[in-house]
């Protein structure tokens, strides 16, 4: 009977590694998108005000020209250190938040999916889509870590969708491979 139960701890560890690989895959997506478009698509904003430019439940927590990961890193640093981080520290914190979130959600993916037949690329793609919709499109805006959805043009939403699919595929492929090797 135990042979059919997934080892959730093993899935958590392997999924965490998969989450880091997925975050790297997301970075490669952004590099390719930037090369294709000629500029970083994340920098585009909509010129016309929209009804959902601000949907924060707690007020604006980010600063202008600050990513959601940089804002979260700055907020955490200020809470722990009692001071504002300098430019280099702020960049480091942004990367730590980004990779930490990727590792955490990858670990959850691995723990929930286990090593069974459901650990497939399609599931990884849907996982990425879920993170895009509930995390990137809604969560960060509701927490005030980014502007609301109508602040950004449709092309940026499409690129963010693609980046999250790349993340989910990277998580699933890596976690699946590690399950086969370990």
- Class of secondary structure makeup: mainly alpha
Low-confidence stretches: none
Q: Helix fraction?
A: 55-70%
Q: Please summarize the sheet with the most strands.
A: none
Q: Report strand %.
A: under 5%
**Count of DSSP helices?**
5
Shape: globular
User: Could you give the distance between the termini?
Assistant: 21 Å
Q: If you average the pLDDT, what whole number results?
A: 91
Radius of gyration: 18 Å
One letter per element, helices H and strands E, the order comes to HHHHH
What is the number of beta strands?
A: 0
List strands and helices in order, with pairings:
Layout: H1 8-37, H2 68-81, H3 87-113, H4 121-142, H5 154-181
Helix pairs in contact: 1-3, 1-5, 2-3, 3-5, 4-5
Notable characteristics:
single chain, 182 residues, mainly alpha, 5 helices
Report on this structure:
- This protein is mainly α and 182 residues long.
- Helices cover 66% and strands 0% of the residues.
- The chain contains five helices and no strands.
- It is globular.
- The model has no long low-confidence stretch (mean pLDDT 91).
């Amino acid at each position: 009977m135990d042979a059919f139960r997934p080892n959730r701890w093993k899935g958590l560890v392997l999924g965490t590694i998969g989450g880091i690989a997925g975050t790297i895959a997301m970075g490669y997506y952004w590099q390719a998108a930037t090369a294709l478009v000629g500029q970083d698509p994340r920098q585009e904003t909509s010129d016309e005000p929209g009804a959902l430019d601000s949907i924060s439940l707690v007020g604006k927590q980010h600063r202008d020209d600050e990513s959601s990961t940089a804002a979260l890193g700055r907020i955490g640093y200020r809470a722990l250190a009692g001071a504002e981080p300098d430019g280099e520290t702020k960049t480091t914190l942004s990367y730590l938040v980004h990779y930490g979130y990727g590792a955490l959600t990858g670990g959850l993916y691995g723990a929930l999916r286990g090593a069974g037949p459901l650990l497939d690329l399609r599931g990884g793609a849907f996982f990425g889509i879920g993170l895009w919709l509930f995390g990137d499109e809604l969560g960060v805006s509701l927490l005030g870590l980014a502007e609301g959805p109508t602040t950004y043009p449709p092309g940026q939403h499409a690129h963010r969708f693609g980046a999250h699919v790349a993340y989910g595929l990277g998580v699933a492929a890596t976690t699946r491979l590690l399950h086969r090797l370990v």
